[in-house]
Amino acid sequence: IVGGMPGNSPWTISLRDRKGQHFCGGSLVDAKWVISTRQCFSSCDADLTGYSAMMGTLFRDPKEGEPSKQNIPLSKIVCGPSESFLVMLQLETPAQFNERVSQICLPPERFIVPEGNTCEIAGWGETQGTADETVLNVAQMPVLSNKECNKFFRGRVKENEMCTAPVQIPVGACEKDYGGPLACQNSDCWVLEGVMIPMRRCGHKGQPNIFIRVSVYVDWIKKVMEL
Amino acid sequence: YRSPLNDFQRSEGRELVPLKGSVDRVRPLPGVSLEECAKQCSESLDCRAFNYETRPSVTCKLLPWIRDTNSAEVKRNVNSDLYEKKDYLRQCTVGKGTSYRGKVSKTVSGRECQQWWSKFPHDHRHTPSAKNGLELNYCRNPDGDPSGPWCYTTDPERRYETCGIPRCEDEVCMTCNGEDYRGQVDHTVEGLECQRWDQQYPHQHIYQPEKYPDKSLDDNYCRNPDASPVPWCYTTDPKVERQDCRISKCQKTLKRSRPTHTTYCFRNRGEDYRGKVNETTSGIPCQRWDAQYPHRHPFYPQAYECKGLEENYCRNPDGSEAPWCFTSVPEMRTAFCLQIKRCADDIEAEDCYHENGKNYQGTVRKTRKGITCQKWSLNTPHRTKINPTTHPHANLTENYCRNPDGDRHGPWCYTTDHKTEFDYCAIKQCAGEKVSIVEPAEKVEFTECGKREDRVNMKAR
């Protein structure tokens, strides 16, 4: 995360490759399911042996005996509708919820977050020198309507995408944050409204950030968990 | 620190079953540990393999055969692993080949070997014993001849001749940096014996075979699971963690662009991507592969000639998730180039549907990935929650794509691939029917999820 601060995001998980290295982010939407982005995986039927989701820690490389850390192997990958670039990842065993690990709510189907709502992104990715890279960083950003966002991107922002407003300092997702959450607060509950996708610039000042709009795919997410 | 298991080749979930009339030669040892079982077999002159059974109880069964059409056959058994002595299985030689116990019985020029017990047509002083392996007329090397196993020939004009059995390092050659090498070399360039991949001593390591099913981390054979320049192994010497193996390179084939290479998009992990994108996802220029600044690295283009490490283009020489590069920024060592598009792997749409396809009655029966649909009325390979009984008016006939639950992403089906419960079909929405998929905001209340404890900064007194 560029322009973020060390923070707490108990639904943000770190995806780990076979060497145990963090390579992408994700969000815990159920004790057994994580949502992330298709770009992080080689195929829709990738062999996930040795891959895992780490949670319950603020550190990118936590020490061996950190008590709250959970590292759960991934057992299944399911690709979302083609234009969604989403994947659902099933955990081999359910995550244990506690003060450091919790699931995030899904938005109502087809819900649009009102412009101006403040949301936050979180991840263990690159900071480009703006923060400590060894811990989970969180950055806040206000939502921008697609109509306004399209003024920056000449109409290329689609309905299944959503934007956050540009700010005058560099803030945004960066390498290895992709797949992680854009979480927005609704009363005292946090809702997964967006998923970070690869962007051509990290926290480009004066430019909106684009995310996949989760509310468009809530029916698919529920169906995957149910079927 | 050498494990007695090093002498054996493991076949997981298998047992060796003697053919009729040989059962009495099996020696069962109940409750013996795996290593002890291997040790007993190694020390027994009569033992050539063992079944290690874990259920219903732990039993070590020492066997006087290996897989052979005349004496024993290999069968599946989830409760047993089969271990066979490598010396009897190998079709190549280690060192001078004095331990070779294979069944080649012809010399390099095609002459039949003379039986070792026989003194005709050539008289000699090698007497078969249980120890020296001079069995029947098989090629052996009882005197440590530098040219490997040999035999007396049945040709009176030719007393003896080498059998020309290849050395293990030459038997299977390697291409590129040997990531696909699956040969049987189990010693390093300096002659150290390799540690088994399924053991954690004397060296602890991350390459457990079950975590890397595509890397064939069998027994203690040299392999290259981490895209090193050549195959290697952990050694049984506690002072030497790992060492390269010497394996001959395959003769060079004509250099030409492989048909799998892509330039504008990448497939799977992008190991065959040969395009010219030279920036990371976030626009940072890549470091040249032939440079060692700002980042020192082992990916010298000349050592990885099959990996296309030209200029500073994004590549995937090590089996990462996608093409990547070392960046030109000292603080950021590597980064993916995820802006390169993935080549479309959806098959072409075969039909179109109106609205959300709830009324689709066509006969497409393939998913977007080309997998055949499962019949709605069957419960295999997937147990159906939506079927003709639960949705009697949805026309769930045969295995045609349908949309019984009004899925907004179109018709779908359960698939015949056991790994994919359901998927969307090779059908597109008919042209010009795009309708808005989002709705304006409304107040929603959540109760159980999305809670967290935010710590408030307390001011000190």
Can you describe what's shown?
The complex is a heterodimer of chains A (227) and B (461). By secondary structure, chain A is mostly beta strands. Chain A is 7% helix and 34% strand. Chain A contains two helices and 13 strands; from the N terminus they run βββββββββαββββα. In chain A, β3 and β4 form a beta hairpin. Chain A starts with a strand and ends with a helix. The model of chain A has no long low-confidence stretch (mean pLDDT 92). Chain B has a five-stranded antiparallel β-sheet. In chain B, strands 2-6 form a two-stranded antiparallel ribbon. A two-stranded antiparallel ribbon of chain B has the order 8-9. Chains A and B meet through β12 and α2 of A and loops of B.
Short overview:
The complex is a heterodimer of chains A (227) and B (461). Chain A has 227 residues and is mostly beta strands.
Radius of gyration of chain B: 31 Å
Enumerate how many helices of chain A there are, as a single number: 2
Spatial order of the strands forming the largest sheet of chain B: 1-7-4-5-3
End-to-end gap of chain B? 61 Å
Mean pLDDT of chain A: 92
Distance between the amino and carboxyl termini of chain A: 35 Å
Tell me the layout of helices and strands.
The complex is a heterodimer of chains A (227) and B (461).
Chain A: E1 5-6, E2 12-16, E3 22-30, E4 33-37, E5 52-55, E6 70-79, E7 86-91, E8 118-123, E9 137-144, H1 146-153, E10 161-164, E11 181-186, E12 189-196, E13 209-213, H2 218-226
Antiparallel strand pairs in A: 1-9, 2-3, 2-5, 3-4, 4-7, 5-6, 6-7, 8-9, 8-11, 9-10, 10-13, 11-12, 12-13
Chain B: E1 8-11, E2 14-18, E3 27-30, H1 34-43, E4 49-53, E5 59-63, E6 72-76, E7 80-85, H2 86-89, E8 150-152, E9 160-162, H3 168-171, E10 232-234, E11 242-244, E12 324-326, E13 334-336, E14 351-353, E15 412-414, E16 422-424, E17 427-429
Parallel strand pairs in B: 14-17
Antiparallel strand pairs in B: 1-7, 2-6, 3-5, 4-5, 4-7, 8-9, 10-11, 12-13, 15-16
